[in-house]
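Q: Could you fold this chain for me?
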Amino acid sequence: MWKVYLSGEIHTDWRERISAGIKAKNLPIEISAPVTNHEASDDCGDLILGKEEQPFWKDNKAAKINAIRIRKLIADADVVVVRFGDKYRQWNAAFDAGYASALGKSIITLHDEALIHPLKEVNAAALASAETPEQVVEILAYTLTAE
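A: Sure. Below is the predicted structure, expressed as structure tokens.
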């Protein structure tokens, strides 16, 4: 059973498409991800540890609490897929890619062609770069089955 961590943007259905492809091919893969409920992720520090008046400290608490999950799941992953969307700057996804790289994890980046240049350093650390979730599934299937 391989463990695959899905990092990155939360505004499209890319995680569901990868999960469906893995299921359709009956691949022995366990998927994990960060908290993808934007409100829950942003507000967890305030809700658990108390309200912060300054946005910096609110975000700081939430980021640290979320990092407990993220660091553990990336550390346990065999492969880390990092999705960059075109609508928002995903500094968190870039950080996850760097963290995974520092741990020696196999990385697959997932983004549109328009982001090739801005992500050249991230792509250089990746072992594969895909443009669709279906390509990610095919990469995973090939590496698992050699077919």
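A (continued): The chain has a mean pLDDT of 95.
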